[in-house]
Amino acid sequence: MKIIDLRALRGPNYYSRHSVILMKLDIAELENKPSDLVPGFKDNVDKIMPTLYEHTCSPGRIGGFYERLTRGTWAGHIVEHIAIELQCLAGYEVSFGKTFNTDRKGIYKVVFRYLEEDVGLRAAEMSVNIVQNLFEGKLIEIDPLVSELKEIGESAMLGPSTKSIVDEATRRGISHIRLNESSYVQLGQGKNQRRIQATMVDDTSAIGVEIADDKALTKSLLSSMGIPVAEGYPVHTLEEAISVANSIGYPVVVKPLVGNHGRGITTNITCESELQMALNKSKEICESSIVEKYLLGFDYRILVINGKFVAATHREPAFVIGNGRDTIEALINEINKDPQRGYGHEKNLTRIKIDHMTEQVLSNKDLL
């Protein structure tokens, strides 16, 4: 089999009022080999993906797709169902799908719903490979493919703030179209459409954005209005950073002057060697940094809509509690089994990753 064309149709389209993946598929010699002519085909499908039994297909009842496999159906139709189920297993509940003949023998159009574009496109490619192997009597392990789709979805999914806006628009019956791979989204259609980029709307002040993007300028303006801020100053070199740290006193914090999501930030720095490592890390995000006095406290994200406080979240650094028996890695693996933890912003809690920062924290505590 060969994919001739693969694309995502965003928003209402010829096939559905929802976004769909459209695949033009050449099933080649399998045109003469429906599923009923392959011994054990249905059983092999059930072995690798038993949840396909829930698919009703044209009979309109649970097990309907299995009935079609037994009576005989073609590769394109099977690709459709497997692509749908791969997405469901990855956490994207979709059900719509159609397979159409064309005026060329062996060429089909396969259409199915998607929620996350990159996940849908990759599921299409995976399903073709799975079905090709099934017709050859080979069984593909599904779990690694589902994990890959989850990772793709986590890296491509909208952030929690943008997703909240999109979800509320959907609840109100307002359509949305994602216009790029980031957080640029169109809400509504025609003359009533509005566009957002993450939490910025199309009439957000450009000057306000520039100010908020510069930590030093933001601190200066807040301080001028009598709002308490941590003492600190922008730096460009290690010598400047050491001078500021000695002036305001350790412990200090180093942040990229421009950045977000906590990237490149190091806290509770107590000596020059730690300061140098922190500055190098900060420069990976922005050439200029800011050195501030380290203050203990809580981390909150505040949601303000139309000048009014609406909600707040309390963010807590990842931690595990020792039991005197297991290693820290084992404790992390155990806590990640919590069903409330997911990839990125998938769920209320995030799976703990073992990365450079984890190793640095453990090293500082002489635990590595």
Name the structural class.
alpha+beta
User: Could you describe the largest sheet, including whether it forms a barrel?
Assistant: 4 strands, antiparallel
Mean pLDDT across every amino acid position: 92
The portion of residues assigned to helices is: 25-40%
Structure annotation, total helices: 12
Order of helices and strands: EEHHHEEHHHEEEEHHEHEEHEEEHEEH
Order of strands across the widest beta sheet? 1-2-4-3
> How many strand units?
16
Radius of gyration: 26 Å
The share of residues in extended strands comes to: 15-25%
Number of domains: 4
Low-confidence stretches are: none
End-to-end separation in angstroms reads 50 Å
Indicate the overall shape: elongated
Walk me through what this model shows:
The protein has 368 residues and is α+β, with helices and mostly antiparallel strands. It has four domains: 154 residues, no CATH class; 45 residues, no CATH class; 66 residues, 2-Layer Sandwich (Dna Ligase, domain 1), CATH 3.30.1490.20; 65 residues, no CATH class. The chain is 36% helix and 21% strand. The protein is built from twelve helices and 16 strands. The two termini are 50 Å apart. The relative contact order is 0.07. The mean pLDDT is 92.
